């Protein structure tokens, strides 16, 4: 915009609430492990991968129950500053753990060893459905992250039990989650021990039961960007099956930005922070990564530009307590800070500066929270 024929001002605005959120789910093959310290080769490989990917949230399955306290040291070593939820249900051998960059306001185990008779199986849930409620900055509602590790095996009893566990989770979502946390975003992750496509004739229809329209979870199919394969098991032998899933609800599904399975052996060149064989050293499963946009992101507008008495004034829509920055340039290549940390106390932001003597371009954005 030309103002008095002297200054050209281009104002771009965006909000830090649009920062994406990354979620990794990974079965880390802790079954039978006798060393889960940060000195163990397997644990160090897991650590290098998560440091490389640097997800905001990780849901781990198959953490050895006897060594779950070691996850505190794992977080300190590889994801310092992250929050840890580890009091999941267990079969006495394995359990799940959730790690988050953002505060975990609540952790809760659901369906922990419950009877499955009402869902067609005479027995109990193998482990549980584990939840962490997470306060994500700039999200107007908390995020509910669930993870589970369903019964493995293709014998008739295991198939029946796994199918009943899927029905129990579906029933929980419809009859417990929805009435209590209406319209809040949630996602189910985990090792379902069943491929939705390969060997489908031998399964218990776990994914169709969990993605029934009444449940509201949606099937996603992340693939590796190099191999274009969705299969996650077994990287230590032959990748023949997809056992690991991220099922978001509709709100999160409509805000998926990217997804993939995580392999280190196909990265070329191998990043310096990784070993090429870290994927198979860490686990027989591949991790699955998904990135979500903020579903509550609302762009703001610049409402007024004034030049008067040698001063330039900008006004914009703001949120009380948020901070904003202004950058300027003359060539759209080299941007410089014109102002940072502009704190607003109401619904309108204001910034004044000396009017430029030559053509300048400006952009305005909301700063991320500290």
Key traits:
370 residues, 2 domains, single chain, five-stranded mixed sheet, alpha+beta, six-stranded mixed sheet, disordered N terminus, Deoxyribonuclease I, Chain A, Immunoglobulin-like
Describe this structure in words.
The chain is an alpha+beta fold. It has 2 domains: 2-15 and 297-366, Immunoglobulin-like, CATH 2.60.40; 20-292, Deoxyribonuclease I, Chain A (4-Layer Sandwich), CATH 3.60.10.10. Helix content is 16%, strand content 32%. The chain has helices spanning 41-53, 70-78, 156-180, 206-210, 250-253, 278-282; strands at 2-3, 7-8, 11-14, 21-27, 57-64, 83-85, 94-100, 104-110, 129-134, 143-149, 186-191, 244-248, 256-262, 287-292, 302-308, 311-317, 323-329, 336-343, 348-354, 361-366. The strands form 5 sheets. It has a 6-stranded mixed β-sheet with strand order 6-7-5-4-14-13, with helices on one face. The chain has a 5-stranded mixed β-sheet with strand order 8-9-10-11-12. A 4-stranded mixed β-sheet has the order 3-20-17-18, with no helix packed on it. 39% of the residues are buried. Residues 1-7 have low confidence and may be disordered.
Write a concise synopsis of the structure shown.
This protein is α+β, with helices and mostly antiparallel strands. The chain is built from 6 helices and 20 strands.
């Amino acid at each position: 915009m030309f103002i008095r024929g002297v200054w050209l001002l281009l104002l771009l605005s965006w909000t830090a609430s649009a920062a994406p959120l990354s979620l990794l789910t990974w079965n880390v093959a802790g079954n039978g492990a006798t060393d889960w310290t940060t000195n163990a080769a397997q644990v160090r490989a897991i650590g290098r991968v998560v440091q490389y990917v640097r997800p905001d949230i990780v849901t781990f399955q198959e953490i050895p129950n006897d060594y779950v306290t070691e996850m505190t040291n794992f977080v300190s070593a590889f994801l310092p500053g992250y929050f840890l939820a580890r009091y999941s249900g267990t079969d006495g051998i394995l359990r799940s753990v959730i790690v988050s960059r953002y505060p975990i306001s609540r952790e809760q185990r659901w369906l922990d060893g419950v009877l499955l008779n009402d869902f067609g199986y005479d027995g109990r849930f193998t482990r549980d459905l584990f939840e962490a409620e997470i306060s994500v900055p700039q999200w107007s509602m908390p995020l509910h992250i669930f993870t589970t590790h369903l019964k493995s095996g293709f014998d008739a009893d295991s198939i029946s039990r796994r199918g009943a566990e899927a029905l129990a989770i579906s029933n929980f979502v419809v009859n417990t989650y929805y009435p209590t946390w209406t319209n809040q975003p949630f996602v189910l992750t985990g090792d379902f021990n069943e491929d939705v496509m390969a060997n489908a004739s031998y399964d218990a229809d776990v994914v169709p039961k969990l993605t029934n329209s009444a449940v509201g979870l949606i099937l996603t199919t992340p693939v590796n960007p190099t191999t274009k394969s969705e299969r996650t098991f077994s990287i230590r032998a032959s990748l023949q099956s997809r056992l690991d899933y991220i099922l978001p609800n509709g709100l999160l599904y409509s805000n998926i930005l990217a997804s993939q399975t995580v392999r280190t052996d196909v990265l070329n060149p191998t990043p310096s922070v990784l070993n090429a064989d870290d994927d198979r050293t860490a686990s027989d499963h591949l991790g699955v990564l998904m990135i979500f946009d903020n579903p509550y992101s609302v762009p703001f507008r610049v409402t007024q530009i004034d030049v008067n008495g040698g001063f330039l004034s900008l006004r914009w829509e703001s949120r009380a307590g948020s901070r904003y920055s202004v950058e300027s340039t003359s060539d759209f290549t080299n941007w410089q800070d014109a102002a940072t940390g502009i704190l607003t106390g109401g619904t309108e932001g204001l910034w004044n500066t000396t009017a430029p003597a030559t053509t300048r371009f400006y952009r305005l954005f909301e700063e991320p929270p500290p």
